Amino acid sequence: MRSLIESIFLAGVNDAEALAMGDGAAILLGDRWLVLTTDAHVVAPVFFPGGDIGRLAVSGVVNDLAMMGACDPLALTSSVIVEEGFPLDSLRRIQASMVATCSEAGTRIVTGDTKVMRRGELDGVVLSTSGVGLTHRVVRDSGLCVGDDILVTGTIGDHGLAVLSARNDLGLDGDLRSDVAPLNSLIRAALTAAGDALHAMKDPTRGGVISALSEMADKAGVAILLDQASLPISAPARAAAELLGIDPLAVANEGKALLGVHPSVTSATLAALRAHPLGRDAACIGRVRAGVRGTLMLDTGFGTRRLLERDGDPLPRIC
Amino acid sequence: MTRPPVEFRDVAAGRALQARLERAMSRATRPITLMHVCGSHEQAIARYGLRSRFPGNLQIQMGPGCPVCVTDAPEIDACVALAQCGVRVLTYGDMLRVPGSALSLDDARAAGARVELIYAATQCVEIARATTEPIVFFATGFETTAVATASVLLSDPPANLFVLSAHKWVPAAMEVVASSPDTKIEGYLAAGHAATITGYGIFESFVAKHGKPVVVAGFEPLDILSGLVLLVKQVLEGKAAVVNAFARCVSRDGNVRAQDALFRVFRHTDGDWRGIAHVARGDLRLRDEFAAHDATLRFADELATATPPALRANLAECRCGAIMTGLQSPTDCPLFGKQCRPEAPVGACMVSTEGACRIWHDHGAAAAGISR
After folding, report:
1. N- or C-end of chain B: fewer Cβ atoms within 10 A?
2. Stretch A181-208: mean pLDDT
3. Contact at CB, B193 and A319, closer than 8 angstroms
4. 8 Å CB contact of B117 and A168
5. Is ipTM beyond 0.90?
């Protein structure tokens, strides 16, 4: 995906903001920054345990804004492209879910567009949402400093494993649910507690924690060492991951954030996160080190290994 | 939120075993090479970073323990040929990208063939029941998954379900490795889950014949470390016995009902394993009683008339065979991480998450303390 973006969409582009390849962009507007982001959403199935494509589309942009420090999204836009014959009831459910998620995030959808494509030209429904927000300080995913602690706001891997399990009808009973949620109020609490000592943020969506932290380490020219014993992973997610042979660190989250903070504010930030319903399982999972740029290592207690980004969808193993 | 069952992942106990291994090897007067015969062992070794703390004079080689890797190109070719004829094919996820002589099933699927993933053999029955068209299950794996295939065929399967068996039998491959004149292997860590089916007694004749110890081990870090401690102890004392270090799952006789199902459905045949060449009694093929469900008979004409595929470039340089027999490591291969990557594999070892090359690639060979 990254090489596709670099070779096609950034070819000939010399705008520094675009070249930063953040999940959003910041434009100076007087004494504040206008943060702008856009996202396209496809997911199969459209309704999954813990959420649906509508909640995903709203949370996606709200979270991208929050990751840059804009925790009060001013407004969103929504484009819906739907396949002819897609059930109207499902469309109504998706719309209701978008409205409810907006209300949870304290924002609204102010304009949109709808297109219908002929049957077979599209698989169900595609949503594209954009959002804007304002902030006095822009947080970047490139701001990690050597010595920073790496915090995660909750359990890892729930969304990816829940969707994979639902998509393939694996019949894994239990409480495996997507974590999809708007994080702006949680991140506001973290920013209030940490202040300028919060150096970098990113939400570990596609590619999971491994992809997000590798990118953060690469952009900042640092290495990261994670501590396996500290990783918060729910029992259902752990069980599904072990059964399928899939690393929970490599699958998407839709309601979690990774924060790089100066160690002096680690405990205050963790306390603030844990006081919020979406941050109860927040944990410090590692530390930024000097080292080979972009290297992500895991200390298992038995030894150390490198975590590498995976290409393509994870495939379950044979035995 | 709960923690995993910690008893076999206890770090303090692991450190103690690592120290015992270190002490034992400090008494060794020569380097010792051991082999594990299971992709899941390598996966656990990589996943827990165990290799970074192995004593420097202890070499742990990977054996032919990845069921995906040893599936031979002509077996893939046959399945690809059926898929290209329009036959609906079901298989396990990690078979999809395994390269045949020219194409993988994934390539065939991209070109329009109907290839679907399943997670359990029982899904084949549900899928076949929902249609009247023939369904081919490309059945791969060792005795563990072969039992699942057998149980499907013993449970009155629908008449339109056909099995293309590429199942294989692990002990046969250990025989090939131990009989190789080049082998430096002084002891074997046998796969715990396969032994759950076969029982550890099956290794007694192997030990008697080759005079090398076998320890059956499970897949948690403490299982592997304690298995290695027991193996090294035997090697240093010049002993050779079968030791069961996975007693919570494995007995001497194994799962007799599963063995019964397995051999009611399958018979041993000689066959080619990818990279290892000919393995006597290494393949499991359907018995005549199950001819009505044998894809090689139902689609004999299609298979006979399929054009033999042209070989891909690069294949000659692939070292999968030497890697699976423990003669070389993935980083010895000139293609590793360059022309051969998980998204574009040349050899089968780069495909499955059980494959040695894939494991070293995904878990970072350099960081795993690998310096050969």
Report:
1. C
2. 97
3. yes
4. yes
5. no
